[in-house]
Amino acid sequence: MTTLEDPATDPFEVAAAAAERLVELTGASSHDVALVLGSGWGPAGDLLGETLAEVRTTDLPGFYPAAVAGHSGTIRSVRIGDTSRRALVFGTRTHFYEGRGVRAVVHGVRTAAAAGCSTIVLTNGCGGLNPDWAPGTPVLISDHLNLTAASPVEGATFIDLTDLYSRRLRDLCREVDPSLAEGVYVQFRGPHYETPAEVRMAGVLGGDLVGMSTTLEAIAARQSGLEVLGISLVTNLAAGISPTPLDHAEVLETGRAAAQRCGRMLADVVRRL
Ligand code: 8IG
After folding, report:
1. Using the 8-state DSSP alphabet, how is residue 178 labeled?
2. Which of 236, 242, 250 to mutate to test the pocket of ligand 1 (most atoms within 8 A of CB)?
3. From the CB of residue 104, how many other CB atoms can be counted at a distance below 10 Å?
4. Could you give the angle at the alpha carbon of 55 between the alpha carbons of 260 and 258, nearest 5°?
5. 125 CA to middle of ligand 1, Å?
6. 87 and 67 Cβ atoms separated by less than 8 Å
7. Domains, in order of start, for the chain
8. What pairing do the DSSP bridges indicate for beta strands 86-90 and 119-128?
9. Spatial separation of the C-alpha atoms in residues 231 and 165, rounded to whole Å
10. Could you list the active site residues?
11. Would you say the pTM of this structure is higher than 0.90?
12. Which atom of ligand 1 has the smallest separation from the CA of 124?
């Protein structure tokens, strides 16, 4: 058991310690924007600007090694374009299905807040319910359904989630790319993909995208006062929408193919934040 899993530990103190260590390792006294790069979003970090420092997540208190092939376990401090602003780029995330508890899932978000960030961009790869969204289509997250039955918020703390996914930031994205669609993201626990019946259920409930991340992180981000932008990359049609079975290798390949467009869009958006 790490300290983060110990109920007696204050997760915000561990996040503050991680942020302090980030200052030492990156040489930057604070950061402005955090990005979490999900499946298919890896190359986006390179297009933001010059990488000024790169830190292994495991060198910071509270982080676990990356568990998913195709995810990198580093945090980069990146100069945003030619400005003096800095982005904190998480090349990986801890997923809820890893069973390390919700605190581990949202530790990066809390560390970003403790490091001074006021905005967080949560990206992911997901399945799409809308057959018009071909694999490789980026979609703005307008709202979510959290089907994990978990919350990062502990105790009797009542957090308002109206407009959790910032309308202002979604509008900003559409200034960069007016063709961007938006939809409701449904987080399942995973790690198995959904059955076709579960995908139909997600649709009946108002969902447009199915995945295994993001909602718990978004809630934690709101709790920490961060403005949240969520962007999904539809890497596959959800089970039953597509006639062919889902395959993680295909997911990664679609991500690679869409990476340039998505990366450029994201870099443009972050420069305008
Ligand atoms: I990439 O179709 C990716 N992640 N739950 N369902 C769920 N997660 C995903 C999917 C998907 N595609």
Report:
1. T
2. 236
3. 21
4. 10
5. 7
6. no
7. 11-272 (3.40.50.1580)
8. unpaired
9. 10
10. 194
11. yes
12. 1
Residue type, 213: S
Nearest atom in ligand 1 to 246's CA? 2
Please report where in the chains the tokens 């890497």 appear, as a residue: 235
Quick check: helix, strand or coil at residue 75?
A: strand
Give kind and range of the element (H or E) at residue 230: strand 227-237
- Give residue 68's pLDDT: 62
Strand 86-90 and strand 33-36: the pairing is: parallel
Residue range 26-62, pLDDT digits in tens: 999 999 999 999 888 888 888 899 999 999 988 999 9
- Residues having CB closer than 6 A to ligand 1 are 39, 125-127, 188, 190, 193-194, 210-212, 235-236, 238, 246, 251
Joined together, the tokens standing for residue 255 give: 């991500």
Structure tokens at 272: 């305008």
Mean pLDDT check: name the lowest of 62-71, 85-94, 262-271: 62-71
CA atoms within 13 A on the CB side of 64: 22
